[in-house]
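During the second half of the funding period, the structural biology subgroup turned its attention to how the target accommodates small molecules. The most pressing case was fe (ii) ion, which had performed well in the primary screen but for which no bound structure existed. We therefore specified the complex as follows and requested a full 3D prediction, including the ligand pose.
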Amino acid sequence: MALDDVAVKIARSENLSILPEVGRQVIRLIDDPDASVAKLESLIERDPAMSAKIVRVANSAYYGHSNIGSIGRAVTVLGMNIVRSLVTTIVYQQVVKNYDGLSKGFAYGLWRHSLATGIVARILAKIKMPLKAENLYAASLIHNVGLLSMGRFCSDQLVTVIAEARKGERSILEVEREQLGFDHTEVGELIGQKWGLPEFMITALRYHHSPLEAPANQETATIVAVSQLAAQRAGYTFEFVATPEPIPTEWLEAIELSEDQIPAVESVLHSEMEKVQQLFNVPAAA
Ligand SMILES: [Fe+2]
């Protein structure tokens, strides 16, 4: 199967999209200068199950509130950016729960890794570009959506790729290119375009393994790239990663981060993961 065939399958999947429409629209509001509280509220309220879950999570100890009774109140108390992140998280969690592609173990391992990557990106962004912290979280959460899609649209090929990567202790990306002629970052880019995601997110989907090659939005792509490796290094890896790759020094330099800062980031990550584990059904181990 070539990338064009995957593109056709993705294009035809309108009614079987891996991301529900409400989720897509909410993610699209990220970076939208015209996004308003009312718009966000009315979008979320179209999905009663999601609204209920947001209210429940917003009232959890993690967010530190107990008097949030509506989406409007959640937006007032937590702020629009946090509510958007929450929606993105809940929607993506739903995607994993209803996943009908490759095994559930694959989807849950990826979920755990994605959440950890989002959390690391938020920590790094709070240091480097605080106003973008929630945007970076959302981009990092979905960084491997291409892989998730491949598990749905070309699962047989992905099974072969995974087996080969495991056997030879090679990177999945390298084996994808060799055996399929394309990789999950290209599929991610196609999905990002189809969903109409903001440019910086599409760049992160496409360049999270090669951020310094990104023609634009290089800094945000690098934060996502560093975050996904830092999450793996901290043990939030998924089934076919034999040995986590070291974080390239050039990537760290590009965002002015030193190797010595990583252990502190990891320790915040562990404590955050412990807190969100229950909230977002994170499996204990990959
Ligand atoms: Fe990836």
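Two results from this model are relevant to the next phase. Residues 144, 184, 208-209 surround fe (ii) ion (CB under 6 Å). The mean pLDDT is 86.
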